[in-house]
Amino acid sequence: MKKIEKEKLLKHLEGKGDLVRLDEARQDPLSATKSSHLPREELLLLFRLNGDKGVEIRVPEGKGGKILFGVPPCEARAVDLLDLTFLKDRIDPYYERKRRENVLFVLACNKPRSTCFCTSFGYGPFSGKYGDVFMVDIGDNLLVDPVTEKGSKALEGLELEEATPSDLEKMESLKRSAEGAITTVNIEGISEKLKKMFLDEIWADLAFKCVNCGACTYVCPTCYCFDIQDVERTNWGYRERVWDSCMFPIYSLETSGHNPRPTGVERMRNRIMHKFSYYPELYGEYGCVGCGRCIRACPVNFDIREALETLKEVEVAA
Amino acid sequence: MFEKLRETARELLSKGEVECVLGFAEGTLPMFYTPYLARKPEEAEKLVYGPFAAPNIATYLRKLKGKKAAVIVRGCESRTINLLISEKQLNRDDVKIIGVPCVGALDRKRILKDYGGEIREARIEGEKVIVKGDNGEKAYVLEEYISPSCRSCLYPEAIDPDIKIEGPSRDGEKADFSDIERIEKMSPAEKWEFFEKELSKCIRCYACREICPMCYCDSCFVDSNRPVWVEPGFDYSDILSFHLIKMYHMAGRCVDCGACERACPLGIRLSFLTRKLTKDMKEAYNFVSGLSPEEKPALGVFSPDDREDFIL
């Protein structure tokens, strides 16, 4: 690993894109990482009636070009998970452009919060494989390590020093203390188990305290559900994509009036199933990164860690 | 300190007088009690009450329709029950009301902000909240950190409970509306700017709506897409429409429990709106919502003496 003073690195990044600082304050409840790739409201196209010429359609250029500085590993991992939805089977051009142009400077997490449980998912606060550049704040300097080619390019022209053994030792000690501060939830086998639990009575118990607001889904760095709306004005209008939430009744309401998820119980089940059963089934990865944002944002203290423990304890017929 | 309550709940459950007891239990986060339904006598051991209970528990009564339930309530929650009964959402005979003392609900977000670092544990000691965490141990005077809504509460204790748990409650004699008066004195332009700054933080997660016991409509105007009353984006006019129309629907129906404000993940001061409603209803109609289950809805009655000076 190399090292550099934080101020020098920041100065180097000046003018290379819109610098978004995530290292200064805790990004709660919303994080700029998800919104920089999937904004809560995004213009997809404009249309207008132009006299005899008929309807004119204009597709706006999407914009990336952000330098996200200080992204925690959990959120960078979350963007990798968003890729599975927006880039894998078919490419979403709006997302793709932002993903291609944004640069993620990931900062190892020295001080995990009480709600963090990232280590449950096979990575941790010092995992260096996410984003474009991996950084560790060792006090007087930042240790930096490019992860992608985009990352190497972003560091080009900088005079980087070689990290000393004592720097690396410092990093190891920070890593140990950070990892030690995180409570791991053992989720082994949960996705297979959930497959057999669709009709289990436990969902009603679990969903009791949930009031079905969308707070957890909106703060979640991996929740990507959206709604597409045509907004009509007099002789013009636009199509936009806005965040949506599976917690809302209208989310699954069909045109016929039928709602396959009529109550909060089915909606809660879907949220957990999607992250811990459907995502692993489709992509081989959990749809949760253990960042704990939903736990902090929930108005009634629904705690996903507790829910997972409860689900684990349920006895299911083989 | 919860022995009396737990004993009462245990007895109700073991004698089969009720199927369940609705209240709060310790949560997984410091300073946060979580809604809890005790269904077996031994589960009564988990029940707690106090300033760490953020939601209005009456919200959960709609999930218990058809069940014989006991519910543990503070003043505002008992007034909510009266409103629900007067609006025919609840039968008085279906609920056993256990009143608990109330010193106000904690404005948890303010303590989190003032403390700065991560809080790992908290407890109440006398009139103080003691928190421990990354910045060491600190004590906060509870009265200074209760929700703004609780500051103007005149009824901290449950009205006509079936069972009353004794204990010290907040002094309900002093209603402090000074922050609302400050807004009232602003010019229209200043008010607009003030509310825009506050409400533009809204992400439309509807936690405020869902946590509200009086927002029980099966289908909400914001969820209607035929016609679209409020567009789904984040235009300020749409955000404002949601909050203002919600407030119109709350006039005379809001007990100002402050649960919506405590539920907001963005920390929007919704009590600026709910407390103005409370203040106006009192001043214009001498009306306080939820004092009795027989009370007629404020906007459902007319008297020739009603004030008209605000009609343009």
Summary tags:
heterodimer; A: 318 residues; alpha/beta; seven-stranded mixed β-sheet; four-stranded antiparallel β-sheet; 12 helices; 35% helix; flat; B: 312 residues; 2 domains; six-stranded mixed β-sheet; three-stranded antiparallel β-sheet; 10 helices; 9 strands; globular; 4Fe4S_Fe-S-bd (chain A)
Fold topology:
The complex is a heterodimer of chains A (318) and B (312).
Chain A: E1 2-4, H1 6-13, E2 18-21, H2 32-35, E3 41-49, E4 55-58, E5 66-71, H3 73-88, H4 93-101, E6 103-107, E7 133-137, E8 142-146, H5 149-155, E9 161-162, H6 165-180, H7 190-195, H8 202-207, H9 215-219, E10 226-232, E11 236-243, H10 264-283, H11 293-297, H12 304-313
Parallel strand pairs in A: 2-5, 5-6, 6-7
Antiparallel strand pairs in A: 1-8, 1-9, 3-4, 3-11, 7-8, 10-11
Chain B: H1 3-14, E1 20-26, E2 33-38, E3 47-48, E4 69-73, H2 75-86, E5 95-99, H3 108-115, E6 119-125, E7 128-133, E8 136-141, H4 148-151, E9 163-164, H5 178-184, H6 188-199, H7 207-211, H8 236-250, H9 259-263, H10 271-285
Parallel strand pairs in B: 1-4, 4-5, 5-9
Antiparallel strand pairs in B: 1-2, 1-3, 6-7, 7-8
What's this model, at a glance?
Chain A is of the alpha/beta class and 318 residues long. Helices cover 35% and strands 18% of the residues of chain A.
What does this structure look like?
The complex is a heterodimer of chains A (318) and B (312). With 318 residues, chain A is an alpha/beta fold. Chain A has twelve helices and eleven strands. In chain A, strand 7 and strand 8 form a beta hairpin. The termini of chain A are far apart. In chain A, 41% of the residues are buried. In chain B, strand 6 (119-125) and strand 7 form a beta hairpin. The termini of chain B are far apart. With 312 residues, chain B is α/β, with parallel strands linked by helices. Chain B has two domains: 3-107 and 146-300, no CATH class; 108-145, no CATH class. Helix content of chain B is 30%, strand content 15%.
